[in-house]
Amino acid sequence: QVQPVESGGGQVQAGGSLRLSCAASGRTFSRYGMGWFRQAPGKEREFVAGISWSVGTTYYADTVKGRFTISRDNAKNTVYPQMNSLKPADTAVYYCAARFEFPRTVTSQAEEGFRYWGQGTQVTVSS
Q: Of residues 106 and 118, which shows the higher confidence score?
């Protein structure tokens, strides 16, 4: 199993950029697909971006496509969502989650498939 821990949240002005990190413990990190979700005040948690265990497949919610890029470094057991052109609507608590996928490539955005979750990190975008 893996245990994700998020970092890198903070406050940024609209149009700015922020890079989050998710470090996950566990010797089999490279076999897990990783996803990022977010929850804004008063709203349900929603999918943001994901990357497969095989690194070659990334997928995004329509609301962030073209602005966010997700990558991973399996040697460091870490996933990085790079968030550019941030908007006030991106303000939320961001969560990292892990899903065992090997040897399949899974691109489902459903929360239910992700078994391991971090505690979240706050991102605030001011106008």
A: 118
